[in-house]
């Protein structure tokens, strides 16, 4: 495969602005790429069940085959190496490792072996594995047994045992662990909006589940640091979602407050207990009252300071306008309306193939500084990327080895990375950047309609054949330019 990057040059003054050990690569998640949902002893996850309910997924699809990464893992690692990636962030499917999920349930050695081989192959190719323990795919059996994360005690015991097994089996080679991916977004989508599995609509459950995630994350970190870190010398963190919220009317104090509240409901909900003062933001307590659980002293002790870095997934920016009365639709986001244009009619950014996502590097620039100022913890960017308007409709590549042109995605990487570089020059500590995603993949409730990859996947082909997109080579070029030699 040959590539001639046709990408605009970066500003010369940003050259070498990222430290030599800066980590960059690609991110994926098991449920979105692996397929092979019932092969070699894997048990079902809540997504396997949820997607069979009519009307839940935009294109009626399931992740049963996804991108066939369970079989194409070796080819995928070779491709990642060709793209120049230094690291690969992927998640483990809990129900592939412990099919029924529980602390007393049997281990599926074939599942352990699959990940172990993948880890070896990555290391052999000079690609550092970053492993997420939980990327939204709870074993179905735990949901059926006790309601999954709604039962803090039983769930935490099961999650601890699963995490311990992963540290025991993979921790000799994996030095970067992430407990949860984006708990905020998924918890809202799962328990407030009913959009994600298991599809509940409730005004109390999101806060109960969020608390379970925080507390179980804390206990897993405590266990890792006590029993594994001294010998395995790795690190552990939680990765949080968060977009930027700008006041709809910059002169209206109520919108200024609403924009801050939106960030606190989305980011502060998890980041304040972990990286901040050890409790939920006051704005959340004021609106949610006793619906928001309280930390016991012990919970607070294990949660606060538990994460070795600030894991950051971020994509876009919105305008935030205050609402006068709390409604079901705005309650979980802090009683704020999210808009595409501000009061002057300025749009937040160019459209993509995904309704919530617009290219908005201006917001990303502000967000990096907001996180750094509020928490002062080294930032590990674990996800950022885009879909491209019209890309999903094709045209699909015509010949083997053809490179798909995606200038919009390359431009997004360039614009967002310029902000990373500028922030680093100012002293904001940023350690990594993982592009979402390595391959087009199954985008949860949006099915296969949102292509986020730097690799085109031909979903119609039995093998799920891959084709490089130009942005993969652009990204490599950007990092060659930005990282100090
Ligand atoms: C965040 C999630 O972690 C990932 O699963 C999803 O595909 C991307 N954002 C894009 O929406």
UniProtKB/TrEMBL annotation:
It catalyses: Hydrolysis of terminal, non-reducing beta-D-glucosyl residues with release of beta-D-glucose. GO terms for molecular function: cellobiose glucosidase activity. It is an enzyme of class 3 (hydrolase). Keywords: Glycosidase, Hydrolase. Its EC number is 3.2.1.21. It comes from the Eukaryota. InterPro entries: GH, Glyco_hydro_1. GO terms for biological process: cellulose catabolic process. Pfam families: Glyco_hydro_1. Plays an important role in cellulose degradation. Shows hydrolytic activity against several glycosidic compounds. Belongs to the glycosyl hydrolase 1 family. PANTHER family: GLYCOSYL HYDROLASE, PUTATIVE (AFU_ORTHOLOGUE AFUA_3G12600)-RELATED. This is beta-glucosidase.
